Every structure is written in structure tokens, then in C-alpha cells.
Amino acid sequence: MIPRADLPDVLPLFPLPGALLLPRGRLPLNIFEPRYLAMFDDAIKTDGRLIGMIQPAVNSGERLHAIGCAGRITSFTETDDHRYMVQLTGVSRFRLKKELEGFAPYRRAELSWDGFERDLGRAEKDEAFQRDAFLSLLVRYFDVAELSTDWESLKEAEEELLINSLSMLCPFDPEDKQALLEAPSLTTRRETLVTLMEFALASGRGGTEGGLQ
């Protein structure tokens, strides 16, 4: 856990549509573009090893969403063809204040961490969570979306891990992912997740074929 006082005012940004990182969540990345290889090389030299994951706003050119999530580089390997296979662990959401000009080949921005203090605390609880009803909906959604998973692990997972992992991994549209990111509490995120799965079932579109580990 990184203390609030140690969070930097400026971070490198990795704009990636559809990529959702949440506090205490884990996001694998395959980094191969030269500008992002340079970003990784610079980030790994800092004390916090932090990268700001953020989504571009849909149909807006270069504009970014106002809220992203900082991730700490917790493991990486370099491949023979000079790519990095990286794992980020979510630290805290942030609000974008302004992008900075400079000589770096990647985007950088001044950030505010205000309003996201709970991200730095312990795992959140969802007191209204009804696991049986949620898993019943999830089974139907996975069937329509042609997804597979380890159901025994899901049945035993703590509610934050379960809700956040599904929010990150389910094949929702980028704007839906942004809504999950911006949910003010775990309960609100679970309600949003349920709404998205119910909409997918009603429309008959679950997402793309794949598997959740």
C-alpha cells in the first residue's frame, strides 16, 4: 500500500480503450510500442513504479476521460523480441487536471487524488451483496457471452475481488468500463455491473468469445 503523501502529482499516462484497472486489481499488459516501452523504462526507475491507466473518450480524437487509475508495476518479463509482459496492481483512481508538454514521447499529466481516499484503504465491503442471486445472473450472462471460468473460485471469492475482477475482465464497451471505474462505491459498481449483464441478456449480446481465469 502506498501512503497518500507518497502519490506523485504527475504521472505518465497509458491511454488504452477498453482497459480497466481498479484499486487492488491486477491488469496484465503487453507493451510493444516504442513510446510505451520508453514510458515503462522511465517508470521502473522511479520509487513508486506507477503508470496512469486511462481511457480515451469515444469519438473525441485525443481527448481523455477525466478519471483513470494508477497502477504499480509489480512484475514484468522482457521477451526475446523486446516486448514487456507487465502486471500492474491498482493503487488509486485519480482525476486528470491537465496534460503537460515536454520532450517525452508519451503523454504525461498533472493529477488530483482528492475524493479517492477509500481506494488506499482496506478492501471494500458490499453489505447488500446477495451472492446466490448474483452468481445466478452471472451463469446466464457467461452462457450468452460464451465465456468460461472457474466457478468454484468465484463462489469463494471475497465480494470486492469478485466484483472488481468481473468489471475488469467482462467484454463490455469502453464507455461501460468507464462507468464501472467511476462508480463511487463497491455497491454502486456491483449495481452497475448487474445492469450491464442484464442489458446484455435482454439484447442477446453477451460479448466476444473468450475465457476468464
TrEMBL record:
InterPro entries: Lon_prtase_N
Organism domain of life: Bacteria
Domain Lon N-terminal per the UniProt entry, residue ranges: 11-201
PANTHER family xrefs: ATP-DEPENDENT PROTEASE LA (LON) DOMAIN PROTEIN
Protein name as annotated: LON peptidase substrate-binding domain-containing protein
